[in-house]
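We treat protein structure as text, and this decision shapes the records that our systems exchange. Such a record has a labelled line for the sequence and another for the backbone structure tokens. The record that follows is passed on verbatim for readers who wish to inspect the format:
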Amino acid sequence: MKKNIFFILLLLVSLIGFSQEEDLLNNEWILHYMVIDGETTTILNAPYPSIVFNNSSNEFDVFATVNGFNYFAEFSPPTIFNENSFVVQEGGVTLGDCFSDCELENKYLGTILLGFEREFNYEIISESNGNKTLTIVTPEGNIAVHGNYFLSVDELTKRTTKIYPNPVEDVLHINSKELIIKKINVFSLLGTSIFETSDIDQNYSIDVSSLKMGVYFVQVIFEDGNDYMHKFIKK
């Protein structure tokens, strides 16, 4: 029995790895944001950098571009694809002059991708609506998050803002990884303002222990003018 369980687990692990690699190869990945040395660069407007992977002898195994002009490619294939990592043997960048996107080119093509014999870790997360996200972690610990869709401001806000626990008994935590919070408001179910503050940072906690049991809303307003409304239950 134990032997059978072992083989079942081994099969499941191999299927997960196969699925990850298949997803990696069968999508064009649009860059959403990068975190380089702790600094975040978010892509919400054109140009939209992208990367594709090919397990093929007649194409670049890895090909990335910012605006279709200069590009990064694996010039000495084959790239080694594993279930949660890939190794680029000889990654190079074309030497044409950049025009209006020099900083973005340098960060994505240069800092994130360029180099020799570099192993990148990756993770692909699939959502019920068919969207997928690809997170690539460089050997230096920098991060590039992609999707098989274009990122909107609303999607970025939802993905980077965490409000927990829910239901809550005493303290409600608000965390925004990429967006700067300007103001927080708490409303009752009827829209009555209960609490507001502007003295906050990207990690903030609200004491809700004095609230009666029920449903409330917290509104998080960001420095760029966008906001995020989230329902929570006080137990």
Q: What stands out?
A: The radius of gyration is 22 Å. Helices lie at 2-25, 102-113, 153-160. The first strand starts at residue 29 and ends at 36. Residues 2-151 form a domain with the Lipocalin fold (CATH 2.40.128.270).
